[in-house]
Amino acid sequence: MELSPTAYVILGMLGWRPMSGYEVKSIVDKSTRFFWAASYGQIYPELRHLAAAGLIEGKASPQGGRKRNVYRLTPAGRKQLRAWLDTDPEVYELRDEALLKLLFADATGAEAAAATLEAKRRTHEQIVQRLKAIEATGKPEGFAYLVLRYGIEFNQWNAGWCERTRRALEDEAANQRRTA
Amino acid sequence: MELSPTAYVILGMLGWRPMSGYEVKSIVDKSTRFFWAASYGQIYPELRHLAAAGLIEGKASPQGGRKRNVYRLTPAGRKQLRAWLDTDPEVYELRDEALLKLLFADATGAEAAAATLEAKRRTHEQIVQRLKAIEATGKPEGFAYLVLRYGIEFNQWNAGWCERTRRALEDEAANQRRTA
DNA sequence: GGTTGCATGTAAAACGTTACATGATTTT
DNA sequence: AAAATCATGTAACGTTTTACATGCAACC
Description:
Arc Repressor Mutant, subunit A, 9% strand, DNA-binding, mainly alpha, 7 helices, homodimer
């Protein structure tokens, strides 16, 4: 039974406690979003798929007149989750348009490169702010906190690199003007 | 004319010098691979697409009896490349299965978490080694060198975080044993 | 003569986002 | 009364990988 990593996002969260697809999505947006995004277009079909495979069980739990399906792990699902956790991680992918623009910046020059660096710095800075806001509203327990700290420190490092590199470019440009 | 970022990988490389699809792929594997991968399944169709759009021009340049198509930027293609370089980067995506496993590690415990951290550390360490090997065989010029340095420092930071965190987990476990 | 590298391409499958559609409930 | 939030889902589209298919040339 080969599952996609996104299926394990669902399995992992249902391992914390039973929840609806809507809840899975809102927790994804507060936790995995910065290193593993997932949309409704993936979550709802995947819930059905996992239920059909017997790894989770759905139960209609309407809140008033508002329909709602709460899913929970089956013993088979928990076993599958543990087996996945016990194997080495495989997927590691990065897509960073800013680095692409930096790589080709010879075609436009140092000013465009500085603008790209500044935009990338802002992106990382914004993520730091959002993650710190999450940390402030009640820090998560256990390993979730470790991952949150990673997110903050990782993005701070990135923002710092952009800042240092932009300054180095500016100093270089200033030196060239002085020497010329 | 909306192009995918992968199309700009091609445009950017043809901005350096004319080359074949095969060459584009081999340079991708030596440069953008760690932040923007591209396969033959994308490159060859995209070359045709860009040629049809008048942004690049292909010319049959066989080497002996071996067929070969070399492409170069048209003035319209260079204009398009510069316009893209002058706009702020948008795509920034990360997919890291290791962080996912770490997030859910409560279900298995500290040992599995340590193994995940160690696997992630190895991944980053290997990338550092490959990038350093590229640096040793003739460092690239201009902005390409900046991007290479980013790759090395970024992966070193990541490997370091994994190492520090794994040690912190071990110390914590040791303290608990002592207190218990 | 075999392996590696150069060279081009396609087809199917997997993966993922976006936009759309619908409707109830809670908060302002 | 309007806006935000809860809640579920689908369809179309775009992107990307993987596997397959082919063949020449250079080196060992």
